[in-house]
Amino acid sequence: MADKTFEIPIGPVHPALKEPIRFTFQVEGERIVGVDIKPGFAHRGIEFMGLRRNLIQVLYLAERICGICSISHPIALTQAVENAAGIEVPPRAQYIRVIVSELERIHSHLLWAGVAVHELGFDTLLHLTWKVRERVMDILEELTGNRVDYAIPIYGGVRRDITPEQYPLVREMIRYYRGLFEELADRLLNDASIRARTRGVGVLTPQEAEALCAVGPTARASGLRKDVRQDWPYLVYGDFGVKAITPEDYGLAPQGDVYDRIIVRLLEVAQSIDIIERCLEEMPEGEITSVPKVPALLAQLKKAEGEGIGRHEAPRGEVIHYIALEAGKEEPVVWKVKAPTYSNLMPWVPMFRDQEIADIPIIAASIDPCMCCMDRVYIVRDTVEREVWKEELLRLSWGKTDRIRSRIAGRSLRAAEAEHGGA
């Protein structure tokens, strides 16, 4: 009897998905033979809004592209604007940006670990990882005033300094995670059930990772030593000699599976702790911003003209912001954002191929996807790409409402006629 292929739709709303995206899997029995991926359910028009606000307001929008990566996008945006406007960042401010960025990496990777083991049904370990994550969240709140949306970067520096009273609190956090590392490594990497559910699952070969432009831990787990902090050093990362981490650093040959993605993120937590400690030891004294007054900063930005690109190694991978400024305008004339999930979308295809249906949740979670970061909208009809503005969207919406009302009225009329005829 010939094999039959069936389609299984998952999403955009599904218990295994933390954000909306639609998968259509082609399966033969329990084996996945193909997948079609349809994003676009969480588009919020942030870039569009940014072109109608001044650059200070745009910074707040950038911070809300992603709640988990709420310093990654502002770091990339500030770099882009600083490049375009020729604004310098004091050394102390660069160190503070790095500290908050690495604190965010720790909390993001621990959050991901909890989500990943939850997808495997291991909720005891979910609660452990999220419990220990609270320590880094407390430090983020201590240093910035917020657990998320830290509001630290500003063009030309940072908004808050790290005070002498806060240094011991950060060092205590470092000791806490160093003492906890072996326990986390043992529970995440040596547990038989986790190993059985992740080893050989969702494999992405080095060739596939490179050809499909994978970034972040997804690429590094496949053996690609690819990290913006290493390849395109910015802030003070170049002084620290940060190196991209792969499973080889744990003494294992990379297999590019979900298990290797756990290894990379776990080792990156330890790497972030080392970076933060070094920042505390070497951070120079001095100013935290080169333009201390917001009105003066806005006036300088309004005079600026040119283009700038900012790149940042977010917990999920490379974030890119492109900005174009025009003299005399407070708002940017172009603002484009590329989030790491966009780069890691196509690598899902070979990861799912030849896997079992039961492994869909953990494979999907293994790239740490963020749909709100990634989603963009384009209108293409008859091969012609165009923009749809507010007026037309309203007209289309009203037209659909009118059609629905007409159908409802028609059904009501037919029901009344049927009732009268029956009488």
Question: Which stretches of 5+ consecutive residues score pLDDT under 50?
Answer: none
For the record, give the distance between the C-alpha atoms at the N and C termini, rounded to a whole number.
57 Å
Radius of gyration: 24 Å
Average residue-wise pLDDT? 89
Secondary structural class = alpha+beta
How much of the sequence lies in strands comes to 5-15%
Instruction: Tell me the name of the CATH homologous superfamily of the largest domain.
Output: Cytochrome-c3 Hydrogenase, chain B
CATH hierarchy: architecture of the largest domain = Orthogonal Bundle
Overview of this protein structure:
By secondary structure, this protein is α+β, with helices and mostly antiparallel strands. It has two domains: 47-340, Cytochrome-c3 Hydrogenase, chain B (Orthogonal Bundle), CATH 1.10.645; 381-422. 51% of the residues lie in helices and 13% in strands. The chain contains 18 helices and ten strands. It has helices at 46-50, 55-63, 72-85, 91-119, 123-144, 167-189, 192-198, 206-211, 216-220, 228-231, 237-240, 258-282, 294-303, 340-344, 348-352, 360-366, 371-374, 390-422, and strands spanning 6-10, 22-28, 31-38, 153-154, 157-158, 306-314, 317-325, 334-338, 379-381, 384-386. A three-stranded antiparallel beta sheet has the order 1-2-3, with no helix packed on it. Strands 6-7-8 form a three-stranded antiparallel beta sheet. Helix 4 (91-119) packs antiparallel against helix 5, helix 4 (91-119) runs antiparallel to helix 16 (360-366) and helix 5 (123-144) packs antiparallel against helix 6. The longest helix has 33 residues, at 390-422. The mean pLDDT is 89.
